[in-house]
Amino acid sequence: MQLGYKITDSVMTVSLSGNFIRYDSDTVQEKMLAALEENSPKRLKFDSGGLGRWDSTLVVVLFSLINSARTRNIPVDKASLPENLRSLLDLSFSVRRNPVTSRKEKLPPVERLGEWGCVSWQGITRGLHFIGLSLKSLFRLFAGRAVMRGVDFLFALEDCSYKAVGIVSLVSFMVGLILAFVGAIQLRIFGVEIYVSSLVTIAMTRIMGAIMAGIIMAGRTGASYAATIGSMQVNEEIDALKTMGIPVGDFLVLPRIGSLIITMPLLTMLSDFMGMLGGSLVGVVMLGIPLSEYMQYSLNSFHLGNFLIGIFHGFIYGFVISVCGCYYGVYCGRDADSVGVATTKAVVSSIVWMIVVTGFLTIIFEGMEL
Amino acid sequence: MSKEAPLISVSNLSIGYGDYVLMKDISFSVSRGEIFFIMGGSGCGKSTLLHVLTGLIPPLSGKISIDGANFSKAGEKMRHKIMQNCGILYQSGALFSSMTLSENVALPLQQYTDYSPGLIKELTSLKLALVGLAGFEDFYPSEISGGMCKRAGLARALALDPEILYCDEPSAGLDPVSSRLLDDLILDLNHSLGTTFVIVSHELASIFNIGTDSIFLDGDTKSIMGRGKPGDLLRNPPNDVVRRFLTRGAKK
Q1: What total number of domains does chain A contain?
Q2: A218 and A328, same structural domain?
Q3: Most exposed residue of A14, A321, A344, B155, measured as fewest CB within 10 angstroms of its CB?
Q4: For residues A244, A246, A248 and A251, what is the CA-based torsion angle, rounded to 10 degrees?
Q5: A47 and A133: one domain?
Q6: Pick from B119, B135, B142: which is nearest to A98 by CB?
Q7: In this structure, are A170 and A48 located in the same domain?
């Protein structure tokens, strides 16, 4: 392959010979463009007598050459190019280059801060609006006026009830085990290993059971809510619901919130129990405490108040997780990427809000001296 | 042309899913430089045939050769090599939503060639200009219309200068003018690059406009009910099924 050029009498002739298959630009092309710039000839023409086979890489060379000739108003004579090459070049120039530049420009820092503030404020109001809609749907459900299919509710219930038992049990058991183990090392210094049982029981029932169940369900079920509803958004199913006049809150959000606020307290109980079981394994096997004694101490430090507070936390977490999952699903963008973003945000925000809510609840219960 | 070996030849091909057979023992061939239409009613297995031809679904039995190589029996590596010579335009473009148009078009070039980044950039701009999307390099698929997505998908399919371009319902979801423009584009590309097009479609206007050869698949008999240039098929329909299809169900 050979690319050459010469300039005579203000006419630039570009000669092409040989095959141009996978022709990667060499210095000739750059020189040619530079020559065109420097000499600004009156005309640009081609000599393609010896041109063999070619592919797009040749078209690129000619494309950029002709483009730069055009911007300098140099007439281009393509007559001697093979017909198919010429028509390809014509095709690539047939559409005017759209100077579409009305896209996001980089804003100065202060304006960006302002924009961030506006977007955040929008997010807060939208979130509150969504919570309001969900609560309204819940009330409509109790009033018997909600448009919710029973089978949707049962499917959602199935997904977050017995299907979650395995993982919640396993993780809670391990957490109980770890709590007991860590506690035992400290308590052994004072020779009161027996209080490991109290430690595990109080920690699990008061908060740890609910937290563990919540984190697992946020990753497991909250994420799936966001992904499912987000894909429905991509697939225009949400639009279909809206145009049918079916409230999205009733049809999609309600079964999910409903099933999670029912199962989360139950899963919390399971988690409490499994944690205590894990603790007792350490107590009995590692510390050599007799099982009956361990159980006695456990029961002594089991307070119904703590237990109920733990369950209440589970209930609230269920609401937080399902609202976060559904919210990010419903407000998901329209492409595959957005579904990923929505899922991530759903899990992260459920966990953050769970912690925030725990803070508030702890202060409230402290005030109530519970 | 006729003496040359066909580019794609399919013999005794059966397609379907498990026990469910869609087409039984069909044979046809596509010559170089044709715009070949695969026609047929909805659900007769057109798209499945395209999936089989592109290697997404294995055939139940039979043989497909592409450019002399046995495609249906080829191993993973050989298949990739053959597919590098084939571009595919999916129904809705199938652009990667996390990449800009130019990144979408550049992906196969980065993967399969050792071109310099500068050349790849120029090539992607050229391909986008060819499909009428010059200046849209930095747009994301979500920012452009459906018709533009389809054309960008065509630009991506063209990235490696394929010899064969498969199109799945190229005019579905386009307005008549855009659909016509896409037809013209296919004709131009066929003309200037010599690309062979294999198009699954039931858009009669395009079929008569640009088709140079075709087969008609019939779902009831699971066989090819007609073949030839669409215009000839319309003038001399081999049977009533084909006639009804090509005349939009007109009564005799």
Answers
A1: 2
A2: yes
A3: A344
A4: -120
A5: no
A6: B135
A7: no
CATH class of the domain at B33-47+84-246: alpha beta
Q: Give the residue from chain A lying closest to B184, CA to CA.
A: A91
Average pLDDT, chain A: 88
User: Using the 8-state DSSP alphabet, how is residue A106 labeled?
Assistant: P
With 90 as the cut, is the pLDDT of residue A352 above it?
yes
Mutate to test the interface with B, among A91, A104, A105, A234 (most CBs of B within 10 A): A91
Whether residues A263 and A356 share a domain: the answer is: yes
Q: 0.90 exceeded by the pTM?
A: no
- pLDDT grade, residue B1 (50/70/90)? very low
Tell whether A135 is covered by a domain: yes
Mean pLDDT for A36-62 is 81
Q: How many Cβ atoms from other residues are within 10 Å of residue A269's Cβ?
A: 18
For residue A360, what are the domain limits?
121-367
Mean pLDDT over the full length of chain B: 86
Asked whether residue A272 falls in the same domain as residue A155, the answer is yes
Nearest to A64 by CA among B122, B129, B138: B122
Report yes or no on A111 lying in a domain.
no
Interface of B with A in 82-101 (CB under 8 A): 97-98
Residue A89's closest chain B neighbor by CA? B130
User: Which tokens sit at A3?
Assistant: 């690319």
Nearest to B36 by CA among B213, B171, B202: B213
A116, part of any domain: no
Q: Taking CB atoms and an 8 Å limit, are B119 and A94 in contact across chains? A: no
- 3-state class (DSSP) for residue A163: helix
Query: Hey, what are B2's tokens?
Result: 């006729």
Sign (positive or negative) of CA dihedral A118, A124, A128, A129: positive
Q: What is the pLDDT of residue B2?
A: 46
What are the chain B neighbours of A94 within 8 Å (beta carbons)?
132
List of chain A residues whose C-beta atoms are within 8 Å of the C-beta of residue B99:
none
Look up the ipTM and state it.
Answer: 0.72
HSE toward the beta carbon, residue A329, CA cutoff 13 A: 27
Whole-number pLDDT of residue A100: 57
Q: Same domain for A193 and A293? A: yes
Can you tell me the distance from the alpha carbon of A360 to that of A356, in angstroms, rounded to the nearest whole number? 7
User: Does the pLDDT of residue B198 top 70, yes or no?
Assistant: yes
pLDDT digits (tens, 9 = 90+) for B112-139: 888 888 888 888 988 888 888 888 888 8
> Is the domain of A160 the same as that of A303?
yes
CB contact under 8 A, A59 and B188: no
Return the number of other C-beta atoms located less than 10 Å from residue B239's C-beta: 12
- For A299-313, what is each residue's pLDDT tens digit? 999 999 999 999 999
Residue with tokens 């006049």: A245
For residue A101, what pLDDT band results from cuts at 50, 70 and 90? Answer: low
A63 lies in some domain: yes
Same structural domain for residues A234 and A349?
yes
CATH number at residue A61: 3.30.750.24
In angstroms, the first-to-last Cα distance of chain B is 36
Distance from CA of B60 to the nearest CA of A (A): 32
